[in-house]
Amino acid sequence: MALKVNPNYAQAHANLGMALFQTGRLDEAIAQYEKAVEINPNYELARTNLGNALLQKGQVSAAIEQYQMAIKASPTFALAHAYLGIALFQKGQFNDAITECGRLYD
Q: What pTM was estimated for this model as a whole?
């Protein structure tokens, strides 16, 4: 396993997080995504996936924060913009959600 060889391999933590997320083990997935972004704070996909796991747990504000950090790290990362729009919609911020989703076409 890659993490035994290099426990500071952000992508391996993110990949493990994705596998855990897909099997419904959200708390463990969140821990792996958090480790990945601790190692590499600008890892936009890990931040987006962390946001998705938080959103799945109903932690909408925390998810929004992760999506925003992913966008800050990579302003053209469309996936983060899309999920941010979804999270804003779930929070009832409809105009902001529409604006955010519109950024996908800028």
A: 0.92
